[in-house]
Amino acid sequence: xxxxxxxxxxxxxxxxxxxxxxxxxxxxxxxxxxxxxxxxxxxxxxxxxxxxxxxxxxxxxxxxxxxxxxxxxxxxxxxxxxxxxxxxxxxxxxxxxxxxxxxxxxxxxxxxxxxxxxxxxxxxxxxxxxxxxxxxxxxxxxxxxxxxxxxxxxxxxxxxxxxxxxxxxxxxxxxxxxxxxxxxxxxxxxxxxxxxxxxxxxxxxxxxxxxxxxxxxxxxxxxxxxxxxxxxxxxxxxxxxxxxxxxxxxxxxxxxxxxxxxxxxxxxxxxxxxxxxxxxxxxxxxxxxxxxxxxxxxxxxxxxxxxxxxxxxxxxxxxxxxxxxxxxxxxxxxxxxxxxxxxxxxxxxxxxxxxxxxxxxxxxxxxxxxxxxxxxxxxxxxxxxxxxxxxxxxxxxxxxxxxxxxxxxxxxxxxxxxxxxxxxxxxxxxxxxxxxxxxxxxxxxxxxxxxxxxxxxxxxxxxxxxxxxxxxxxxxxxxxxxxxxxxxxxxxxxxxxxxxxxxxxxxxxxxxxxxxxxxxxxxxxxxxxxxxxxxxxxxxxxxxxxxxxxxxxxxxxxxxxxxxxxxxxxxxxxxxxxxxxxxxxxxxxxxxxxxxxxxxxxxx
Length: 604
Prior knowledge:
Blueprint: H1 3-24, E1 62-68, E2 75-76, H2 79-89, E3 91-97, H3 102-108, E4 115-117, H4 123-130, H5 142-146, H6 148-153, H7 155-164, E5 173-174, E6 189-194, H8 195-200, H9 209-222, H10 247-257, E7 267-269, E8 276-278, H11 285-298, H12 311-319, E9 325-328, H13 333-336, H14 339-342, E10 353-355, E11 364-366, E12 376-379, H15 386-396, H16 399-407, E13 414-416, E14 422-424, H17 426-433, E15 443-445, E16 452-454, H18 459-462, H19 491-494, H20 500-509, H21 514-518, E17 524-526, H22 539-560, H23 565-582, H24 584-601
Parallel strand pairs: 1-3, 1-4, 11-17
Antiparallel strand pairs: 2-3, 4-12, 5-12, 6-9, 6-10, 7-8, 13-14, 15-16
Helix pairs in contact: 10-11, 22-23
């Protein structure tokens, strides 16, 4: 008997027993709201209406466990997100991040969770498929019955997942999806810099990283302290997102050379040529980026806390003006450009972070695919509530669900105007300006249930902490009049220059906003390859890989903090020697093989 049938019969049996007990006691129970006769087990799935389905219209709150390899949160979903999910689906989420051997432990227990979010569609995902730990979305028509939006509007995402599974079944759908071909995502590597300071310097030419280092040094002299009186630095970095390499070093290489540092690992991959650049290659992109950061460090321009702080500890420094530059929009301009910074107040002139891409740089931007990307949403095979999981995932892949994951509750924080343009409400704009905005005491009346709730916590607290996207921000929102999901592409967010520095930036660049400016640079589109996943490593290779990974991360941080060029070179050579002893060349040979396979699988 199929699992879905078993759950339905169990629910029916429970209902019958409850009614029998009430009748035996002489009771006259009122008719419950969900007593429509459910479909028989033989017909369940193909014609069942989810609106009448007792498995979805649960009267008792269901807790779903979400095991997420991308989460930075552990515990119950909180804030406005918890309120919304409770109202809409009567569910609660418990997030389990992939830390302290969680993946291996859950694999050994044969129970990954109700919903699983994979950091990639590689060997760990494949191992779960091969061991039968993921639910087949075609079983009992789970997808077509409870995932109607996905099945009707995003069929390529389902086809892409089937293509990477040896058995041809569907066990999930990738993130970052679009429903239109030929698009690229929005730019996240935006090279944000304090433009008000750059303007004061007279707009010196920035051709390359050496020029940028000089400019950042001059900016530090102009602005030695932030809003809190503490020292400013060119950059503030964090190690908690490091993988096979130091994340910020790898990201800088992607921003400058246009190569990807994630799809293969332990190096950077050029999507245009298929060439793979090993992380420790002499004069290669990774070590060149590392050398630039060491140059900044030697000039006192790298936050000394960078090696030990978390991303969350870095954020306030950017928000308080202690950082002058960031290659990422989310870690730079999105945090710094608050109304407090951008508005002229008394004798204080407004400031702003705006992009300044070196003329020789080729920033990477990711091509979008109707097949989605590699961070897969799956359902655990041991889940007692696969229908509820599918219902939630399906909603997250609707335009409203996608918008909610970024911008909050529709109607309360954002909406569409009469022309289909997307706009923030006054509350939503405050949250967009400051994600730590406190929502405690804000009331929200649900359009679905009519219930009124009083919210708690900050906007950030309420974001869905599973930390995965559904739609790509660069995709066109089908519910709009053609606007994309990214807020900086909305007509309502353009407007007049925020201050004199912003006006100067627009004059110098000829652009109205970040995304339009980035389109004028020598960017490189990284091709999507939704049907590609890296092959599983042998246990012997995995051991070498893990040892080399730790060696490269630790060695990179030591080299970044080198006090001189000679010390930097010595530390890099020491890192090469140690990595070689661990089996670095075997790891790189495997990477080269995977790069060739990916190049053959890429979309044009």
